Amino acid sequence: MSPSQQRYDFELISSWIPENARVLDLGCGDGTLLAGLAATQRVVGYGVEIDPAGVLASVANGVDVIQLDLETGLSTFGDGEFDFVILSQTLQAMKNTEKVLHEMLRVGRQGIVTFPNFGYWKHRLDIAMGHMPVSKTLPYQWYDTPNIHLCTVKDFEDLCVKVGAEILDERVITGGRQVNFMPNLLGDLAVFRFKRK
Amino acid sequence: MGTSEQRSVGAVTPQKAGFLEPLILKAGKTLAAYELVYETYGTLNADRSNAILVCHALSGGHHVAGHYVDDPKKIGWWDNMIGPGKAIDTDRFFVIGVNNLGGCHGSTGPTSIDRATGQPYGAGFPLVTVEDWVASQARLMDRLGIEKLAGVIGGSLGGMQALQWTITYPERIRHAFVIAAAPKLSTQNIAFNDVARQAIVQDPDFHGGNFYAHGKVPARGLKLARMLGHITYLSEDLLGEKFGRETKGEGYAFNYDVEFEIESYLRYQGDKFAQVFDANTYLIMTKALDYFDPAKESGGDLAKALAPAKAGFFVASFSSDWRFPAARSREIVRALVAGKKRVTYAEIDAPHGHDAFLLDDVHYHKIVAAYADNVAAEIGLGSRAGALVIGGTELEEMKGYGGKEGGGE
Q1: Please, which domain of life does this record's source organism belong to (chain A) (predicted)?
Q2: Which of B304, B377, B386, B396 could serve as B298's disulfide partner, Cβ 3.0–4.6 Å?
Q3: For helices B187-201 and B279-291, what crossing angle results, to 10°?
Q4: Of B136, B156, B320, B329, which is the active-site residue?
């Protein structure tokens, strides 16, 4: 994941979040998103991060961060405690993807998930040429990647149905621009907003 | 690189504050008058906003940083954390170390003379609680002219005091550093404490706590209590790594003398402790630990107990701490989140067990420093002048872990 790509989904996320919302940012990294939301929208909440370097960087960025392993669940957080629960470019690295979505629906009134779209045409082309894709949104070699659960826009739509999530908003972007025509083919970064049905 | 001496608060002198206003204790008794011994480091700023109070753990005291002129080797127990350029930076913060009531390092306690009898309190010293300590510390803050603390920091029993501060005096504390602590002891914790206490009270030299009058010290009991405690403050891995099954001689001696290195180490630590610590204080401190349970009055609901708190919280635990495991700190975090409090939680991967909170773990010091820097920024104290200093060394030059023997619960 390159920093420029990160900013594209951050912009979209920021546009969805109202002032003073309570937000939980899962896999918050160095806390950039929350620090920005706090500055522009007076958002309150916590980042969750497992990596010690990320936790330290978040503290340095003035973000309230809680060091936790998402794989073990979100039992630290009660039902419906947050207006938004965000999982930005972390879904594909989760072992128990379904569980984390259930947990997001439990602790938040709305969830936002962003992930690299495996259905992007360049990715499909790489596969067609006999290789695992390497791109701006998937910048890792197959043997050295944190990404274990790659999916396409359509796959994620199906998963939303399975976990009982109602999709409220669904955008696919490439290079910061929204893709409206054949998004599952032409978009490399998917951004979903959903709530419990 | 600064030397240890340059990076220390230097020579310090304890001070004493006497209080004549009676303190009504949770146990129902009253201390008519009492004294608290304390030390301060750094400079209190003009608006008195930069003070950080350090609460001590079971065997701690007021001597937190620096050394004594007449005893240069007596270095404060948190000297690696507190000093110029250190995580709690005395170039910006005014830091106060205090010895708790019931202690044996100068504050009124069992070894003090009871004015009513002219004899040491001994067994007659009332049981004090975390709440009582916090109340007495607040009076010391009044005396120092500090209305609102920038922070209260403590590890283990000290962390419990920091937590209690946020409940009792929500308006008087900006941030609480709750390190290697728990919202209340587990059954196992209480069990360990009682074994330690039984070792003391069953020592023939204990004389029901009035051993001072007999010119005796229940050193054997105190030593056993410390040996037991010491084991629980270190991780099994660390003990194994440090001592293994090494023996003093070749082969087994087939007797009960000191044979294994770990036996030698523990007995040495126990003896050393028994020479400097008071048995009655050990009983009082472990009881204060047992009694601490702020959620008790809220039917076990910690979030409800913490509802009055207005502080920001820094909570930290250590992966190898089995006496106060990470799960106990997560209970505190969960309650704070439920109460919509500001909280940062770090689960530090350290091999040293409970005592890790006293050691030079680089990541641990970095994250405490980062949080403390935010506190400094919040009250306009400016930023760190140079590199972070851990122990006596600037961070760039830190390699791996240093460390000294810890003090435990």
Answers
A1: Bacteria
A2: B304
A3: 160
A4: B156
HSE-up of residue B124 (Cα within 13 Å, Cβ side): 16
Residues B366 and B328 reside in one and the same domain:
yes
Mean pLDDT across chain B: 94
For residue range B318-372, what is the model confidence (pLDDT) as tens digits?
999 999 999 999 999 999 999 999 999 999 999 999 999 999 999 999 999 999 9
- This complex has an ipTM of 0.92
Q: Are residues B102 and B149 in the same domain?
A: yes
CB-CB under 8 Å, B346 with A76: no
Q: How many domains does chain A have?
A: 1
Q: Answer whether A46 sits within 8 Å of B337, measured CB to CB.
A: yes
B337: which chain A residues are within 8 Å (Cβ-Cβ)?
46, 66, 76-78, 81
With cut-offs at 50, 70 and 90, classify the pLDDT of residue A87: very high
Q: What is the DSSP string of B158-221?
A: HHHHHHHHHHH-GGGEEEEEEES--SS--HHHHHHHHHHHHHHHTSTT-GGGTTTTTT---HHH
Confidence of residue B408 (pLDDT cuts 50, 70, 90): low
Same domain, B75 and B198: no
Give the pLDDT confidence score for residue A7 in this predicted structure. 66
Residue A22 maps to which CATH number?
A: 3.40.50.150
Domain span holding position A70? 8-117+148-196
Higher pLDDT, A178 or B282: B282
pLDDT at A1: 42
Asked if residue B163 and residue B36 are part of one domain, the reply reads yes
Mapping DSSP to helix (H, G, I), strand (E, B) and coil, where does residue A62 land? coil
Q: In chain A, which residues have their Cβ closer than 8 Å to the Cβ of B373?
A: 60
Band (B409; pLDDT cuts 50, 70, 90): low
H helix runs in A68-188, sequence order: 97-107, 121-128, 153-163, 183-186
